[in-house]
Design goal:
The chain is mainly beta. The protein is 4% helix and 47% strand.
């Protein structure tokens, strides 16, 4: 045991001596990297693949040549070339095509680095402008049309007797010179974007000859179908759906313009009282709401917002309550049943005093012989009402507890109950006594 102890001590001592004598040395930058680049950057446009040629040399091994493009202080593009030996190297760097960026002067920086990390840098001011295209191309499923300059800055138009007022299409540019590239503009997230070719849902209010326009700087395009909600233009999600986030006051007058068939639309009584065709009074409490117009189903979907997101039920009873489940739907259960799809969740109308309601018509919005849906704290899975937090004062609808014919919290019709076809029912949830002491009532009008 003693000899083993001495052996261990000797090893420790040896390691200590090694740690004292070994020093970590850093590589000292050496050499003399030389970078020669002539100013070859003329007539540059947004969207170019900008070529460059560089002559490099050093008396030690070279490593890389990096080109970096700056718009102001922001790096917007970078490319790196491996420089194994002295000589001439060529490459390209991408010039981004961006919305709303004005013509101006960018900075193009080149950095030559050798294997000892010694470097040399050269920079150039590069004027960049938006290309004056002689034309753009409007591409539909079955044809292509030239879009010519209108005389307005960066604006182009195709004026044709198009085959339909609905004209889904994308737009592309020609390559204006050898360093240019074809750029496409399509539809994504409810707006025109560069680099995608999904069809833009152009719609003309008139048939026959009309103009399709596009601005290569602002990305403003048209024509689109327009709906005005109290004078504000609703945002197009796609050709069948429009929406707007807006602050509304209880009892506020609302006017909808741009829908010629508004008289045929289904108006949700939980949110709107119709005064005359296209004019309404707002029912819920004052707050922020998302109004969605569905042109196919002809109805306005309304959701309570918190900021820019669907609201949830707050601990103090304010916010929103949502419905997810079977046998209920707006504008009709046949056209759009909610089902167990959180994206389709119905937002109950907050009518005040921490009370929330949904109005349904038997056979239209709700099945008359069976229901199976429940109340949630948010538009999605998470907090939900069960038999411990929700009671029913109704002689029509009961709250499931897992043993009485419905899963915990799911609603069902009491035995022998059949809702009346065409009758209106108001289902209300009152959380004024606390969100864990919610009470449901059902009133037949």
């Amino acid at each position: 045991m003693k000899s083993l102890k001495y052996w261990i001590l000797s090893i420790v001592g040896l390691l200590g001596m090694m740690s004292c004598t070994d020093e970590i040395t850093e590589i000292e930058p050496e050499g003399n990297p030389v970078l020669v680049i002539e100013n070859q950057f003329a007539n540059v446009h947004f969207g170019d693949e900008l070529p460059f040629t560089a002559s490099v040399s050093d008396n030690v091994s070279l490593s890389t040549l990096t080109a970096i493009l700056y718009f102001g202080e922001e790096e917007v593009s970078r490319t790196t070339i491996r420089t194994k030996e002295n000589g001439d190297y060529t490459g390209t760097i991408s010039v981004p095509f961006l919305k709303d960026i004005p013509d101006g002067t960018a900075t193009l920086e080149f950095i030559l680095t050798n294997t000892t990390l010694k470097r040399v840098t050269k920079s150039f001011d590069v004027p960049i402008k938006r290309a004056p295209y002689p034309f753009l191309i409007l591409v539909t499923e079955n044809a292509s049309y030239p879009m010519l300059p209108t005389g307005q800055p960066n604006e182009y138009a195709a004026i044709e007797a198009f085959p339909s007022t609905d004209l889904p299409a994308y737009i592309k540019t020609p390559a204006i010179d050898a360093k240019g590239r074809e750029i496409v503009f399509g539809w994504e997230a409810g707006t025109v974007m560069e680099g995608v070719s999904a069809y833009i849902p152009f719609v003309s209010p008139v048939a026959g000859t009309f103009a399709v326009t596009f601005n290569t700087k602002t990305y403003q395009a048209g024509p689109f179908f327009e709906i005005l909600f109290n004078g504000q233009k609703m945002h197009m999600v796609d050709k069948s759906n429009y929406e707007i986030d807006v602050d509304l006051a209880q009892g506020q007058d609302i006017k909808v313009e741009g829908l010629e068939d508004i008289a045929d639309w289904w108006i949700d009584a939980d949110y709107f009282t119709e005064k005359t065709t296209g004019e309404y009074k707002f029912v819920p409490i004052t707050g922020k709401y998302r109004i969605s117009a569905n042109l196919t189903l002809k109805y306005f979907r309304v959701e309570v917002l918190s900021g820019t997101s669907p609201a949830s039920l707050n601990a103090d009873g304010t916010g929103a309550i949502w419905i997810i489940g079977q046998n209920i739907g707006k504008p009709s259960v046949q056209d759009l049943e909610v089902g167990w799809e959180p994206a389709r969740a119905l937002c109950m109308s907050p009518i005040g005093n921490k009370k929330y309601q949904v109005t349904v018509v038997g056979g239209l919005n709700i099945h008359t012989d069976a229901i199976n849906f429940k109340f949630f704290h948010q538009k999605g899975w998470g907090g939900e009402y069960g038999s411990a937090t929700l009671s029913s004062n109704s002689d029509l609808i009961f709250v499931g507890d897992g043993t009485n014919g419905r899963d915990n919290g799911n609603l069902g019709l009491l035995p022998d109950v059949v809702l009346e076809e065409g009758a209106t029912y108001i289902i209300m949830v009152d959380v004024s006594a606390g969100i864990d002491k919610a009470v449901m009532t059902v009133t037949k009008k």
